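New to this. Help decode the following:
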Amino acid sequence: MRGDITISDVMIADLVHRAEQTYPYECCGVLVSKGSRVNRILSLTNNSENPNISFEADPMELYGIEQGLETDEDVGGFYHSHPDAPAELSVADEKNMIPGMTYLILSVYEAKITDIKKYRK
């Protein structure tokens, strides 16, 4: 099982920007890691029918990301935003978590981040 990953303040600022720019819809993406540190953040297209309350990633888009990883990179986790909702795991979030992955949830109210929480299963 992969250990917990860390993320720099610069990467957090990038996530904040993505979530604020995507509001009132959920943004989502992949945390690419080298060892225990996130070194790249890749956005995913939100294909949900209700993008302001949920996200749905295309499995082929995820597959393409995995195929494009460098030999020393891994998918270390995922991120998504919760527009006008707390940075807490929803029932769907918890159900779909992959063991060993890190998940970041960004709470966004009125296009401003109010909280960021990290989870692992």
